Inverse folding.
């Protein structure tokens, strides 16, 4: 996996006139993991969006090296397309259309390849979103609430995919209010008095 890294120095985030967090320092290298927890509205998604380059920090310095794949709350999948086609659209942007079948297999949904996205259950939709990240081949995974809607088994599969990604030299940043196993990951609690 290509070289990747994330470095935050003194990062602050204010939204709607309220300081969500400040003075955040962080360095992640290949194989690194970060688990971001905290109550609703604390700023977990905001931190993910700052690392993704979609939101400016209010203060501090952000440096990210390597391609990023973002799993946001909205999966960004065309509801009218069959699952396979919806994923091939995104993977095609990275020249990785051939990676889609393996990614669907990895989340246990290869059999849903021909089914339109709009017919998926909540958990299935989330798993297809995870497959999109897997298929991207990006070294940096930014996962915002990836376990929402997943059953116990699927959360275990997600944990395994994250572990394999890190073992292959990738980086995973995961914002979650549900427990996800990430061995050796740094954990930060935003808000909640932490
Ligand atoms: N575009 C915006 N303009 C102003 N405030 C915003 C905007 N987007 C989010 N906020 C506010 O920023 C705060 C942090 O939101 P964020 O989505 O980062 O929290 P979160 O920790 O991910 O929450 P949750 O667990 O509910 O997903 C919230 O108070 C939210 O209302």
């Amino acid at each position: 996996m290509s070289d990747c890294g994330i470095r935050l120095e003194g990062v602050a985030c204010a939204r709607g006139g309220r300081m969500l967090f400040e003075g955040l320092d962080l360095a992640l290298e290949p194989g690194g993991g970060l688990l971001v927890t905290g109550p609703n509205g604390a700023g977990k998604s905001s931190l993910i969006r700052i690392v993704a380059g979609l939101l400016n920090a209010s203060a501090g310095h952000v440096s990210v090296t390597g391609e990023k794949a973002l799993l946001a709350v909205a999966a960004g999948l065309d509801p009218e397309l069959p699952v396979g086609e919806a994923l091939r659209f995104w993977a095609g942007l990275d020249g990785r259309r051939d990676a889609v079948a393996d990614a669907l297999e990895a989340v246990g949904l290869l059999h849903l390849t021909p089914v339109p996205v709009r017919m998926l259950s909540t958990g299935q939709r989330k798993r297809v979103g995870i497959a999109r990240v897997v298929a991207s081949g990006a070294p940096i995974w930014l996962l915002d609430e990836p376990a929402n809607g997943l059953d116990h088994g699927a959360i275990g599969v997600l944990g395994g995919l994250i572990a394999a990604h890190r073992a292959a030299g990738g980086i995973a940043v995961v914002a979650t209010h549900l427990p996800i196993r990430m061995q050796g990951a740094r954990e930060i609690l935003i808000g909640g008095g932490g």
The radius of gyration is 16 Å. Residues 15-16, 20, 38, 40-46, 177 surround adenosine-5'-triphosphate (CB under 6 Å). Strands lie at 5-15, 18-28, 33-37, 59-65, 68-71, 140-144, 171-175, 186-189. The CA atoms of residues 49 and 166 lie 21 Å apart.
